C-alpha cells in the first residue's frame, strides 16, 4: 500500500504520503494527534466507519492535517490562464495581470508569508484555536486560484 501511495501523483495519495512523512519528521508535533485519535477511537470496532461526527471530535488531528497541507501541499504547480483581469497590491508595488495571462503559482512557496507567524516552523497549534490563517486554494487543490482561471 505504501508503495502505491508513494508512486501516486493524485492529490489524495500525495496528501497521505505527506501526512505519513510529517508524522515521522515532526513526531513531537504529531503526538497530541495520535493520543487524541487513540482516545476517540478506543471503543470503536475496527470496521466502524469514521464519520464527520467522529472527525469533529479530533481538533488536534484537524490542526495537524492543516499544518501538513500548509508546509507540504499535495498539489504541484499547474499553469492557469486568467479569464479576468487581476490586480494584486502589495506595500512595495501593484501588479496588474490582464485576462489571458498564463501563471503557474508555486504551492510550496505559497504559505511562507507574513500571514503565518514563524511560517518556516511546523506548528499545528496555530490551528487548534480555530481555522487559523486560510490555506491558499491553488496550493491545496488542483483547481482554484483566488481569481477566475482555466487550467492550461
From TrEMBL:
Task: Give the region (Disordered) as residue ranges.
Answer: 126-152
Q: Name one GO molecular function term.
A: oxidoreductase activity, acting on paired donors, with incorporation or reduction of molecular oxygen
Q: Which InterPro entries match?
A: Cyt_P450, Cyt_P450_sf, Cytochrome_P450_monoxygenase
Q: Which portions of the chain have biased composition (kind: Gly residues)? A: 143-152
Top-level lineage group:
Eukaryota
Cross-referenced Gene3D superfamilies:
Cytochrome P450 (1.10.630.10)
Family as reported in the entry's similarity comment: Belongs to the cytochrome P450 family.
| Protein name, entry field | Cytochrome P450
In its UniProt entry, the species of origin is given as Haptolina brevifila
Amino acid at each position: 500500500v505504501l508503495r502505491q501511495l508513494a508512486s501516486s501523483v493524485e492529490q489524495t495519495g500525495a496528501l497521505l504520503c505527506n501526512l505519513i512523512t510529517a508524522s515521522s519528521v515532526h513526531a513531537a508535533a504529531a503526538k497530541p494527534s495520535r493520543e487524541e485519535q487513540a482516545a476517540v477511537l478506543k471503543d470503536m470496532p475496527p470496521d466502524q466507519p469514521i464519520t464527520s461526527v467522529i472527525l469533529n471530535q479530533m481538533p488536534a488531528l484537524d490542526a495537524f492535517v492543516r499544518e501538513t497541507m500548509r508546509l507540504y501541499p499535495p498539489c504541484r504547480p499547474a499553469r492557469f490562464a486568467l479569464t479576468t483581469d487581476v490586480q494584486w497590491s502589495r506595500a512595495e508595488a501593484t501588479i496588474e495581470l490582464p485576462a489571458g495571462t498564463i501563471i503557474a503559482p508555486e504551492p510550496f512557496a505559497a504559505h511562507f508569508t507574513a500571514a503565518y507567524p514563524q511560517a518556516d516552523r511546523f506548528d499545528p497549534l496555530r490551528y487548534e484555536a480555530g481555522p487559523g490563517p486560510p490555506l491558499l486554494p491553488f496550493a491545496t487543490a488542483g483547481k482554484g486560484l483566488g481569481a477566475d482561471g482555466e487550467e492550461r
